[in-house]
């Protein structure tokens, strides 16, 4: 019914199948099947002489996955609609159907893009947590302390709130892959700023003998400019990706024509990642300069208070 591949046509690196089949005007006519002939020993035998003609219902194909029979219903979302929002609506509509209509032994699964997104999300969550674990291990080894890595990791986790605020403000969808990559990249930048600040505060306390309040104030003043410059330069470097600015790099040097234009598929792909990093790092700058010193002061005083109580208890014994 679908024709037979007679040969192949090759031109350069391209290859095309040549298929012999019924003409377009005969394909939709059942009566055309009555006139078909079968070649047998160089003779053509009418199909009706060896087969019984009967119109009925049957399966066009049987599909299986992992030896389990399945039927697939596929669809595409219209332009301008969010596929995740459409899928959520479909799930809400089919919930009652899957619970009350589908017989026992059958199950309804949502695959395709939804399944791919779930797998990507699971991978990025594991990668993010694994990255935080490795960062924590390195920080504990470097500072020989548990309190300071806790402060740094707290600033990293809280900085993710800035990412979601940025997506809401700019009305951008949460693209799982690229936004997740932006979150992981943001963690590395936030860690660097927090490490520099805490390390300098420790140097002021150990080398110059400053008290904790004086060291925090002095460290914030000295490291204010490096932290701000890091945030601003990183954000400005990602602005072209965020706004979808494109140009012809080759044409800029060969024809002196950059051919600037806005948008395109790459803007929809890279935009969420750029927005995640830009807004996240600006929000994290506030956390680094304000929240990190506050946590440092609170936890340091708490540790000293606990040590003092243990010392008094030992002396009493």
Description:
Helix 6 (176-207) packs antiparallel against helix 7 (212-243). The model has no long low-confidence stretch (mean pLDDT 80). A two-stranded antiparallel ribbon has the order 1-2. The protein starts with a strand and ends with a helix. With 317 residues, the chain is mainly alpha-helical. The chain is built from nine helices and eight strands. It has helices at residues 24-27, 31-34, 83-100, 113-143, 147-169, 176-207, 212-243, 249-254, 265-316; strands at residues 4-11, 14-20, 37-40, 43-46, 63-65, 68-70, 245-246, 261-262. It has two domains: 77-110, no CATH class; 117-316, Up-down Bundle (Multidrug efflux transporter AcrB transmembrane fold).
Topology:
Blueprint: E1 4-11, E2 14-20, H1 24-27, H2 31-34, E3 37-40, E4 43-46, E5 63-65, E6 68-70, H3 83-100, H4 113-143, H5 147-169, H6 176-207, H7 212-243, E7 245-246, H8 249-254, E8 261-262, H9 265-316
Antiparallel strand pairs: 1-2, 3-4, 5-6, 7-8
Offer a concise description of the structure.
The protein has 317 residues and is mainly α. 64% of the residues lie in helices and 10% in strands. A hairpin with a 2-residue loop joins strand 3 and strand 4.
| Helix-strand sequence | EEHHEEEEHHHHHEHEH
Q: Give the CATH class of the largest domain.
A: Mainly Alpha
Q: How many distinct domains?
A: 2
Q: Tell how many strands the DSSP assignment holds.
A: 8
Approximately how much beta-strand content do the residues carry?
A: 5-15%
Low-confidence stretches: none
CATH architectural group of the largest domain: Up-down Bundle
Termini separation: 96 Å
Give the C-alpha Rg: 33 Å
- Give me the secondary-structure category: mainly alpha
What can be said about the biggest beta sheet?
2 strands, antiparallel
CATH topology-level fold name of the largest domain: Multidrug efflux transporter AcrB transmembrane fold
What name goes with the CATH superfamily of the largest domain? Multidrug efflux transporter AcrB transmembrane domain
| Mean pLDDT rating | 80
Kindly state the percentage of residues in helix.
55-70%
Annotation field: number of helices: 9
